[in-house]
Amino acid sequence: MAKGNAIIGQSGGPTSVINASLSGVIENALKSENIDNVYGMRYGIEGFMAGDIIDLGAESKSSIKALKNTPSSALGSCRYKLKDEDIPQIIEIFAKYNIRFMFLIGGNDTMDTIHRIEAYAKSSGYEIIAVGIPKTVDNDLFGTDHTPGFPSAARYMALSVMQAGILARDMKNVDQFVVYQCIGREAGWLVGASGAGKRKEFDAPHIMCFPERPFDKAKFLADVKRCYDQYGFVSIVCGEGIAYADGTPVSDSDTKDRFNNVEFGAMGGTSAAMALHQMTANEFGFRGEFQITESLPMCAADRAASLDIEEAYICGRDAVQLAEKGVTGVMVTIERYGDVFNYHSKTSTAPLSEVAVSAKPMPDEFINPEGNFVTDAFFEYLTPLIGEMPKYAALNYKPVPLMA
């Protein structure tokens, strides 16, 4: 294995803990006997091709350590779809800077990028060790029990829906319903996580709409009526990518990004939450709210799960350890063992070739038969990841007898 320099990049949307992975890579790469210098891609592979490369070894130890609790993407990110003609240029830059180790932190599209670069380098005879480090709030990466970034975003969703549900309960004489939209094009992990603070049947949320299940307008409106009749208000959580049985998105956006993904709720379009709001208001004459957080769950460091921070760092650390052993063409994964009361995890690997082309929707056993809420099995999976939820006061509302 050739000695040389290392390059690190971040891609796609950030998470509250992506910089913990970055800290893990930098700290351990700087200690490696096989790595001479540690460089960073400014704004991902797009910036790298433009020559925007920084010396991470010149950063202070205190700054690198502080990354562990710093939100967003410290190196800057991009959403660039790699072209075949880009890859020879990238290998030329590698050779120019004697880069022999490559670490990219990201999701499916990022794993596709690093996989294609590693495969081309191998076929062209350029020696490179390439290891992917998982990141996504959507939790839809193949091969890993969960993805760094998901537990913190899940906690954000759970707290937000829990607190907004208390507001909706107390304001039900004014607003009869609220719709809360979660990010996640094709996976409803965050939709399910929104129920982690629910203690009683009355508590929010009441209805969940998953991208994994076809949206049925008649069934949805029947669920709304049932919940309103029972609770006097309705708390609804939907995934941004929910669609009808024929594949038509509930959101009417037709804007697409560079990876041909629909940008739900893009300018000029209607988001899923807005569409559900409109159909509920039109059907029942209710007054209500919709709440769309977009990127907030990706960067809310104040709500980050402590376990998430540690596991994200460990994924970065172990990526370097794998590279030092000559392991290439893999993504670091997390394996869990134990149970909900005795959670433990360790890292493993999955081939980049498999991660790059696969996605992980919620399994059937995590969604109830009606398709409108999660099961106890899901909460057993989620609970150790997000930590304990707060317990808020509940008044007894003992009425005062009417005075004669």
Structure description:
This protein is α/β, with parallel strands linked by helices and 404 residues long. The protein has 12 helices and 11 strands. It has helices at 18-31, 44-49, 61-66, 86-96, 108-124, 150-170, 189-193, 217-231, 272-284, 306-324, 352-355, 376-386; strands spanning 4-10, 35-41, 53-55, 99-106, 129-134, 177-182, 207-209, 234-239, 288-292, 330-339, 342-351. The protein has a 7-stranded mixed β-sheet, with helices on both faces. A 4-stranded parallel β-sheet has the order 7-8-6-9, with helices on both faces. A hairpin with a 2-residue loop joins β10 (330-339) and β11 (342-351). α1 (18-31) packs parallel to α10. The longest helix has 21 residues, at 150-170. The chain is elongated. The N and C termini lie far apart (92 Å). This is Pyrophosphate--fructose 6-phosphate 1-phosphotransferase. It is found in: Cytoplasm. It comes from Sedimentisphaera cyanobacteriorum.
Q: Could you tell me the CATH topology label of the largest domain.
A: Rossmann fold
Sheet bearing the most strands, described? 7 strands, mixed
Order of helices and strands: EHEHEHHEHEHEHEHEHEHEEHH
How many separate domains make up the residues? 2
Mean pLDDT across the residues is: 94
- State the separation between the terminal residues, measured CA to CA: 92 Å
Based on DSSP secondary structure assignment, what is the total number of beta strands? 11
Oligomer: single chain
Shape descriptor: elongated
Highest-level CATH class of the largest domain: Alpha Beta
Q: Number of helix segments?
A: 12
- Known CATH architecture of the largest domain: 3-Layer(aba) Sandwich
